[in-house]
């Protein structure tokens, strides 16, 4: 493996925002005053919140301490859909400086808006996340998140600019061109989804370029679930430090939480702007304690155009104490989204579990798909894991690797499945958020 001439800058050389270094007590006092403001602001300005609070019999004045947040009703994606397009906005349209939206592949798009101040806060938090992940002012940043209504491209772009970087706004796709620009422009950092970075590394190898030989030193990856095993894969093949960045459009976009390169132990949630909670996904009246697994819920503390109260993300994780930024809690890796969970004969399964297991088997690549079928005349669903072998593996090697994968899935997840090892390059490659699950069961 090639070592770079310039070693990563020491993580301690950065100047942090004041809010990154305050005490937990000071942070919670700030959260309470911002929360009281936000809840009253949402109630006064957004009819949906007034209606929901009134129905639940709560009033903004009931919020006296942070724990009182649990009395307020949740907001869901469905609420945003019903209020399509601008019903959730708390400011007149002329104060909305930008609009983003989800793709809307499964129903109506969800639309979000930002005032000028919201955009400045967002850029500040993305800059904070990038800096935590090792990116420094003056570095060249190759931004391969998709530009457009998706928050990834423009959100990451504004953050990198705010940090003082030179941004290369390539967007997602056109992988050959990405590789040319990485070689010619010599960026220090790359921003992409983990599976798209894998696509880039793979395409480099096909062209005879060693992915470890580029100028890249840092990657800031998010927008989809990924595992420690995938981090190891990308860090070793590309000779980079890879950190996580988390976010969602309804709450802001990328930069709700970001990971520190010196600890690489999960993203710190920027709690001066968002109050997180973990709830029991099946019994949402139960707010869980730190360390317990459940569904992540967010309340915005500073947003003007789209204040969001107790938004149910459907992301499953847990809250952990802060480390590199002690006052800000971390989130554990996201196991998956509750709506991406496969229930196979009573056993719950997430694609990330398969990624974790498969990447520990040296003969198998990180390229896999999960196919769900229900064969004619049968009532039982079947899971087939289609996974590419590594280039270097023999036919005998493949047969035993398939068996190991099948056994490991049975042991660690509890599901029986079929494993189909396929040729390198035969499965669809990611351009952004990768689809892992192909549900071919008869509808209805
Ligand atoms: O994906 C925002 C984003 C862009 C985050 C670029 C990071 C980097 P949405 O399209 O609204 O926004 O999708 C949000 O993506 O609820 C999670 O399920 C998933 N997700 C985002 N970041 C991560 C991550 C953007 N680091 C949804 N790990 C979220 C796991 C993630 N899942």
Bound ligands = 5'-O-[hydroxy(phenylacetyl)phosphoryl]adenosine
Q: End-to-end span in angstroms?
A: 52 Å
Q: Note poorly predicted spans.
A: 1-11
Strand order of the largest sheet: 4-3-5-6-7-8-9
Number of separate helices? 11
Q: How does the major sheet shape up? A: 7 strands, mixed
Percent strand equals 15-25%
Helical residue percent band: 25-40%
The gross shape turns out to be globular
Layout of secondary structure:
Blueprint: H1 18-21, H2 24-45, H3 47-56, H4 77-82, E1 98-101, E2 111-114, H5 116-132, E3 140-143, H6 151-163, E4 166-168, H7 175-185, E5 189-192, H8 194-206, E6 218-222, H9 228-238, E7 241-248, E8 253-259, E9 267-269, E10 274-279, E11 287-288, E12 294-300, E13 311-317, E14 319-320, E15 330-331, E16 336-337, E17 342-344, E18 347-349, H10 351-358, E19 364-373, E20 382-389, H11 395-412, E21 418-422, E22 437-439
Parallel strand pairs: 3-4, 3-5, 5-6, 6-7, 19-22, 20-21
Antiparallel strand pairs: 1-2, 7-8, 8-9, 10-11, 10-12, 12-13, 13-16, 14-15, 17-18, 19-20
Helix pairs in contact: 2-3, 5-6, 7-8, 8-9, 10-11
The structure holds 5'-O-[hydroxy(phenylacetyl)phosphoryl]adenosine (DLL).
């Amino acid at each position: 493996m090639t070592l770079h001439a310039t070693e990563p800058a020491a993580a301690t050389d950065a100047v942090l925002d004041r809010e990154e270094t305050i005490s937990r007590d000071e942070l919670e006092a700030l959260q309470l005053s911002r929360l009281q403001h936000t809840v009253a602001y949402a109630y006064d300005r957004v009819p949906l919140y007034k209606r929901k609070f009134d129905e639940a019999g709560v009033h903004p004045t009931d919020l006296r301490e942070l724990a009182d947040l649990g009395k307020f009703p949740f907001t869901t994606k469905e609420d945003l859909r019903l209020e399509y397009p601008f019903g959730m906005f708390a400011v007149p349209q002329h104060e909305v400086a930008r609009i983003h939206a989800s793709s809307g592949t499964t129903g109506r798009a969800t639309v979000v808006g930002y005032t000028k101040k919201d955009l400045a806060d967002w850029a500040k938090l993305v800059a904070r996340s990038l800096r935590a992940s090792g990116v420094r002012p003056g570095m060249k940043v190759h931004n391969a998140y998709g530009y457009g209504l998706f928050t990834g491209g423009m959100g990451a772009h504004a953050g990198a600019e705010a940090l003082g970087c030179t941004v290369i706004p390539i967007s997602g796709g056109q992988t050959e061109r990405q590789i040319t620009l990485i070689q010619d422009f010599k960026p220090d950092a790359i921003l992409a989804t983990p599976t798209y970075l894998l696509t880039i590394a793979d395409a480099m190898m096909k062209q005879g370029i060693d992915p470890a030989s580029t100028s890249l030193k840092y990657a800031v990856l998010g927008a989809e679930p990924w595992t420690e095993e995938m981090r190891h894969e990308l860090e070793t093949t590309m000779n980079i430090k890879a950190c996580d960045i988390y976010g969602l459009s309804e709450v802001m976009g990328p930069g709700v939480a970001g990971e520190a390169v010196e600890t690489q132990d999960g993203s710190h949630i920027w709690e001066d702007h968002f109050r997180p909670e973990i709830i029991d996904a099946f019994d949402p009246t139960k707010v869980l304690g730190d360390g317990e697994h459940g569904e992540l819920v967010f309340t915005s503390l500073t947003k003007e155009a789209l204040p969001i109260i107790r938004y149910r993300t459907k992301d499953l994780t847990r809250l952990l104490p802060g480390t590199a930024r002690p006052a800000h809690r971390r989130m554990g890796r996201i196991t998956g989204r509750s709506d991406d969970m496969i229930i196979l004969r009573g056993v719950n399964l997430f694609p990330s579990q398969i990624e974790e297991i498969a990447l520990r088997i040296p003969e198998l690549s990180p390229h896999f798909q999960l196919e769900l079928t229900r064969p004619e005349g049968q009532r039982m669903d079947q899971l087939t894991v289609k996974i590419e072998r590594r280039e270097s593996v023999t036919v005998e090697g493949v047969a035993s690797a398939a068996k190991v994968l099948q056994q490991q899935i049975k042991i660690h997840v509890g599901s029986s499945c079929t494993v189909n090892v396929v040729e390198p390059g035969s499965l669809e490659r990611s351009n952004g958020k990768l689809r892992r699950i192909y549900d071919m069961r008869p509808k209805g």
